[in-house]
Automatic annotation (TrEMBL):
One Pfam family this sequence matches: p450
SUPFAM superfamilies associated with the record: Cytochrome P450
Cofactor(s) the protein requires to work: heme
Gene3D superfamilies: Cytochrome P450
Top-rank taxon: Eukaryota
Annotated family: Belongs to the cytochrome P450 family.
Phylogenetic lineage: Eukaryota, Fungi, Dikarya, Ascomycota, Pezizomycotina
Classification via InterPro entries: CYP450_sterol_14alpha_dmase (IPR050529), Cyt_P450 (IPR001128), Cyt_P450_E_grp-IV (IPR002403), Cyt_P450_sf (IPR036396)
Keywords: Heme, Iron, Metal-binding
Protein name, as recorded: Cytochrome P450
Length: 322
């Protein structure tokens, strides 16, 4: 009680005039963690209306400052490494998932080299060659004899987000990593990916080492994946491709793939994959909403990568007659 009173008093009577306004919160440490965690967009919009483009909120005890709008995007994405350092924030969360010495577990200059190296493999020619692999995977996924048995008959219902997460892994592994990797992936591997993904929960910004069930699953999945890839890499040689193009400019209201040094290198692959999966799936089956109200499912923000809330059940009907 004393802590709450003290926290409120400090906010109301001792505002620091030279710092961004702090979003009002009752509980110290917890601050705005739950309202931000459940609906980050709603949280940003409502606080933008109250405080403007710049404000601070308490996220698991940390003062977290936000700068919204096009100017904010440019300020953050073009910030100097000494002021805005992604690896410092992300590393506790990502290193147990991605592994050591890569991405945010190394100096930014080294990660830039790793990004270039991956980008080398994502040229127009290589993307074109992925289309047939992605098509074949998608057809097999919707086939009557697929081992998961979701589409074993002429029509039925299925949970779209779970199925799409599985298919995304099959198509990505087959095209980006080749048939040897894909052949090791049954739905157990899809579950391991899910376990890795669940390592990206907000609580892990604070407690990535905690012996929580999701962290144990994350570490098991990481070891299993690393062992699988190590075995394959030993048999493989790497190829070299040219560069692709990415759009530039951080002062934009719409940056779905980020900008500047943290710019996504997977945009072209992502669109190739999405469009090929969609077209190939539509050739096999028709999809119908079973919700008369036409409501879309909400967004699940529980992992770093937002996705549709599951279950979101859809009706399907095979196009070909048996
Ligand atoms: C629809 C799919 C995708 C979306 C919406 C997306 C979005 C993003 C965004 C917003 C960023 C910037 C992150 C930041 O500023 O901190 C990013 C970075 C990145 N993405 Fe993607 N991405 C997608 C697919 C992919 C794919 C398929 C790959 C790999 C093949 C990939 C690899 C990367 C990498 C390596 C970075 C750089 C991170 C950094 O420099 O800090 N992404 N992505």
């Amino acid at each position: 009680m004393v802590a709450i009173l003290l926290n409120v008093t400090l906010q109301v009577f001792f505002k620091k005039m030279d710092e961004p306004t702090v979003v009002f919160h009752w509980l110290p440490f917890i601050g705005s963690t739950s309202s931000y965690g459940v609906d980050p967009y709603g949280f940003f919009f409502s606080n933008r209306a109250k405080y403007g483009d710049i404000f601070t909120f308490i996220l698991l005890g940390k003062k977290t400052s936000v700068y919204l709008g096009t100017k904010g995007n440019n300020f953050i994405l073009n910030g100097k490494i000494k002021d805005l350092n992604a690896e410092e924030i992300y590393s506790p969360l990502t290193t147990p998932v991605f592994g050591q010495g890569v991405v945010y577990d190394c100096p930014n200059a080294q990660f830039m080299q790793q990004k270039k190296f991956i980008k080398h493999g994502l040229t127009t020619a290589s993307l074109q060659s992925h289309v047939s692999a992605i098509t074949a995977e998608t057809r097999a996924f919707f086939a009557k004899d697929a081992s998961h048995k979701r589409f074993a008959s002429q029509c039925g219902t299925f949970d779209l987000p779970t199925a799409m997460a599985e298919l995304t892994i099959y198509t990505a592994s087959r095209s980006l990593q080749g048939k040897e990797v894909r052949d090791k992936f049954d739905s157990t591997f899809a579950h391991l990916y899910h376990d890795l993904d669940m390592g990206f929960t907000p609580i892990n910004f604070m407690l990535p080492w905690a012996p929580l069930p999701q962290n144990r699953k994350r570490d098991f999945a990481q070891r299993k994946m690393a062992d699988t890839y190590k075995a394959i890499i030993q048999q493989k040689r790497l190829e070299d491709y040219g560069y692709g193009l990415v759009s530039k400019g951080a002062a934009s209201p719409y940056l779905p793939f980020g900008a500047e040094r943290h710019r996504c290198i997977g945009e072209q692959f992502a669109y190739t994959q999405l469009q090929t999966v969609l077209v190939s799936a539509m050739r096999e089956v028709k999809f119908f909403s079973i919700d008369d109200g036409g409501e879309f499912t909400g967004t699940d923000y529980s992992s770093l990568f937002s996705r549709p809330l599951s279950p979101a059940v859809v009706r399907w009907e095979r196009r070909s007659k048996c």
